[in-house]
């Protein structure tokens, strides 16, 4: 029941924006989504299962945004600047994404364990959520690897240098989440620290 699942995750996200996760009640999430509490438990198993699924969805949304930024028709440095801009805006606009990227979970947020939990769920999406959740280092690596996959090609520098440049951009963006940059924002910083064609030799 993908539509009901998304409605429940939307309702949980909305509830989290209004009050701390410890006081969010499953019955209220179900009511906002227009389903029974039993349907909610059937889908997620528990409040912890709901939290894990919500965190997984937001991690997926962040990585989808990285993919969109990399798909922009621009030179490699500008694509990486777009990834940095997306990382900063996503972290500033979504407390869960910020927590996942920085590892700083406030008492308002759910803080599910990152390791896999035993799962007997018949719901494939929930079995995935019950698997390991990405740590900040995992998310940086996933964003870096996506950038490397898109930007590598003929005329590139060695793969290690490209990977370092891509990781540097994500880590630079994360520093801007904690300490907002000055004039020109994160894009100006990326342009300063990366060569004009970070994936080309010569």
Describe the structure.
With 202 residues, the protein is mainly α. The chain contains ten helices and no strands.
Tags for this entry?
about 200 residues, mainly alpha, 10 helices
**Helix-strand string:** HHHHHHHHHH
**Straight-line N-to-C gap:** 53 Å
Percent helix:
55-70%
Stretches with pLDDT under 50, minimum 5 residues:
none
Q: Tell me the β content.
A: under 5%
Q: Using the alpha-carbon principal axes, give the shape.
A: elongated
Can you give me a brief rundown of this structure?
The chain is mainly α and 202 residues long. It has helices at 2-18, 26-33, 37-44, 47-70, 76-93, 95-102, 124-130, 136-151, 159-178, 185-193.
Layout of helices and strands, plus pairs?
Layout: H1 2-18, H2 26-33, H3 37-44, H4 47-70, H5 76-93, H6 95-102, H7 124-130, H8 136-151, H9 159-178, H10 185-193
Helix pairs in contact: 1-2, 2-3, 3-4, 4-5, 4-7, 4-8, 5-6, 5-9, 5-10, 6-8, 8-9, 9-10
């Amino acid at each position: 029941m993908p539509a009901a699942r998304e409605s429940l995750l939307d309702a949980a996200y909305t509830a989290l924006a209004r009050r701390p996760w410890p006081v969010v009640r499953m019955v209220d999430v179900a009511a906002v989504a227009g389903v029974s509490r039993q349907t909610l438990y059937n889908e997620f198993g528990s409040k912890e299962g709901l939290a894990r699924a919500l965190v997984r969805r937001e991690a997926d949304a962040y990585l989808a945004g990285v993919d969109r930024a990399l798909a922009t028709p621009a030179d490699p440095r500008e694509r990486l600047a777009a990834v940095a801009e997306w990382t900063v805006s996503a972290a500033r606009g979504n407390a869960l994404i910020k927590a996942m990227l920085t590892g700083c979970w406030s008492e308002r947020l759910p803080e599910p364990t990152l390791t896999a939990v035993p799962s007997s769920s018949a719901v494939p999406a929930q079995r995935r959520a019950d698997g390991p959740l990405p740590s900040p280092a995992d998310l940086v690596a996933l964003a870096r690897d996506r950038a490397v996959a898109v930007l590598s090609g003929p005329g590139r520098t060695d793969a290690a240098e490209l990977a370092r440049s891509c990781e540097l951009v994500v880590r630079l963006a994360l520093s801007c989440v904690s300490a907002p940059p000055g004039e020109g924002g994160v894009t100006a910083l990326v342009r300063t620290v990366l060569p004009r064609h970070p994936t080309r030799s010569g």
